[in-house]
Amino acid sequence: MRGYGAFIQKEIRENSRNYKFFILGIIFAIVGLLSPLSARFLPELMETLMDENITIILAEPTYIDSWLQFFSNINQIALVAFVLVFSPVMAKEYEKGTFIHMVTKGLPRLTIYGAKLTVLLLSWTIFYLISFLITRAYTLYYFPEGTSEGLFISVGSLYLFGLLIISLLMLSGVLFRNSYAPLLAVGGGVAVLFIGSIFPVIERWSPLQLATRNVEVLTLQSTDPAFTRGAIITLMITVMFIITGGLVFRRKALQ
Amino acid sequence: MAVLEIEQLKKSYGTQNVLDGVTFSVDSGSVYGFIGKNGAGKTTTMTIALGLLKPDEGTVRINGEPVTYGDTKTNKYVGYLPDVPEFYPFLTAGEYMTLCADVSGLDKKESKKKISELLEMVGLENNKKRIRNYSRGMKQRLGIAQALINDPILLICDEPTSALDPIGRQQLLTVLKKVKEKTTVIFSTHILTDVEAVCDKVAILNNGKIVKQGSVEQLKAEVKTNQWTVVLETEEEAGRVAEALEIHPELLPAKQTGVKVEGTSESAADAMSIILNCLHTLSVIPVRVERKEPTMEEVFMEAIR
């Protein structure tokens, strides 16, 4: 347990001193801030930028637009940045051989894997929470009529999708020594999900629903069985990736 | 008692046999030199002993317990110093040592004292720089400090001096000499002067096999020396001695270079007898008469021939 704590502390120091936490903190905060602001002011901005002769009719923005921006910004900016920043999580240690001193001091490999995974999961949770709280506060301020009905399921499902991506990032990090390989694995994984969702049979079971149907859940304020199935599948795959990663790392040659 | 026992160790990569039945043991309290040319299998043997690589066949025991691939329990007895140790560059030496102490499960209070003792021993006690700013020599010294944090009974050093300049090498060898008072050391290298400087026993590895092992003195004694040298006061004396020795066919060829007369013979003992007689007959007092002792380099070359 002491080794686990010490390794977590090392990971936190590393990510703080290499400015990874700082960069992600800024990105997630900007996403949190930008989502309600763009929902609120984008229509006005467009109106002022348009030629006087052109008339566009824009619906009055609501809290739904704010969360629509949030989901799309988290998916397209924050999660991508998270994966980019943490893609060398294992590769750097493989390349430099820094694991060897830890392992030869008797630190179990599963402790190393567990500590790295914990820091990734905690980082995702904290940054996502920061982003969510900022968006929530500004949405309440600009759109006081908004309701929180369905909000936590829609926000929670995207969080769960993030966990799936992180577990895939860790698994591919363990499997491949190259720091670009996890990027390709995550990118490839998401591409496979998109291709799969072309087929309705797969779509009804796909984890991708957790990242694409958030606004629908928020608007309808309820989920359907397909969405629930997607969430269960996501959880199962996440656990499977995490366990597989640990098992592979236990037997991985470190030299 | 043997701290490290290796029996019939075999490892191959594809068709290339790296280790082919390597067997040796390292007794407690000694510095064991493990020498061989590049690619002889030294690092592979050490990596297997650390549980970082799986052997095809054979067993390794440390302190009587078998080494297993993966999370081997025997690592609690071991300290490891690689040729180019890599650390977390964003940490200071103190922080890195604290991490190592925590990972090794040392008592908090005890570890503080131990860390300052070890950093003092390697001359890094007041260094607040991050490791990314360290020279290679400093990294190697930190490497030895971290390897000793858990009071290992066996210190495995894999070519620890190969990447260092002469001063760094000297510093490291001094530290190793200090360490050997408490810890058994196995020390792989291809720098043979380092072996002579610190090792009690030596094993020579060639083509995946141990071709010779024993104490440095034993191995040297096994190599026949047939060279002799006489150093005289003046060139004139050297000339007279060279001329006198020429009539002895068993000393041929006797060659004069300045005040030195050198040659080879079938038997070094016979040569000494003839040379001393000759000096006596000529009434010449030499500065030095010597049978040249074989160097470790000659021992090594003989072994791998």
UniProtKB/TrEMBL annotation, chain A:
The chain crosses the membrane at residues 21-42, 70-89, 110-130, 150-171, 183-202, 226-249. Keywords: Membrane, Transmembrane, Transmembrane helix. One of its GO terms (molecular function) is ABC-type transporter activity. One of its GO terms (cellular component) is plasma membrane. This is ABC-2 type transport system permease protein. It comes from Alkalibacterium thalassium.
TrEMBL record, chain B:
It comes from the Bacteria. It holds the Pfam family ABC_tran. Residues 4-232 form the ABC transporter domain. Transmembrane segments: none annotated. GO terms for molecular function: ATP binding; ATP hydrolysis activity. SUPFAM superfamilies: P-loop containing nucleoside triphosphate hydrolases. Keywords: ATP-binding, Nucleotide-binding, Transport. Belongs to the ABC transporter superfamily. This is ABC-2 type transport system ATP-binding protein. It comes from Alkalibacterium thalassium.
